[in-house]
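Example 3.2
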Amino acid sequence: MMGMLTYCNCLSDDEISFLTENKAVSDFFVLNTGRITGNENAVSVTEQKKRNGVVLYALDIPEREDRLTLLDYFRMDKSRRLEEADLPKEKFYPQLVAGIFLACGSVNNPEKKYHMEFVMPTIELCNDFGMLLIDNYDITPKHVERKNAQIVYIKESENIIDMLTLMGAPMCSLELMNVKMMKDMRNKINRAVNCDNANIEKSLKAAEKQISDIELIDETVGLYSLPDNLQEIAELRYNNPDFNLKDLGAAIDPPISRSGANHRLQKIAEIADRIRVEKGLALKEE
């Protein structure tokens, strides 16, 4: 409750107002304000339906006596500063952080991006909240100003998971961890597929060059002019353009290694290059 009050929309002796789109949060604020002030009707609730169909609950405490009782209970004033002397015991810090989140926090759908933010009225409150997280939980949030509002945000998925767990939402933490695991797995699969596709394309281009060499040799000096080991792999390559080096090596009798197959194909490439050079010289002489 202290966290919700500290970061509510307006806080002073003259006005306390709190806005939320969550009915459960509205009920919680009403119930606890009534318990603290001793007036179950201390909070006035106005519902406003927005264009997107979401209901906005505007909560106000109209009576000055109730406002002063609430502020005195938490030893707060309009500065809202989280002074160490006025903070609850450290074991209650998780509830304080949860209240702050209910007042001004939000978290994005992790399927789209990892992002948790708190929209705060002053830079001083940003600093107070940031130091609370750094000093006690080793979570370092970032700050940005957006449309005259001070934003404290967290983008690291691990820190968001820690925040959700801290605030008493372990099931949300588990859901985010599952999403992160699935996204990481998809990314690894995509990288592997891209790598495989690149390797396949590279192998196909190499096979095209090798078949071109073999056809040149066959058309000029004949494959029968090659040594038996080169003639064997030349025929295998020509008849199996989709084979990789490992497949070619395995198809030879007796089988040879991938590097052995590559070595024989390089020999064929050297012979084809010599033929091209000789053919080029003959054309020049003509």
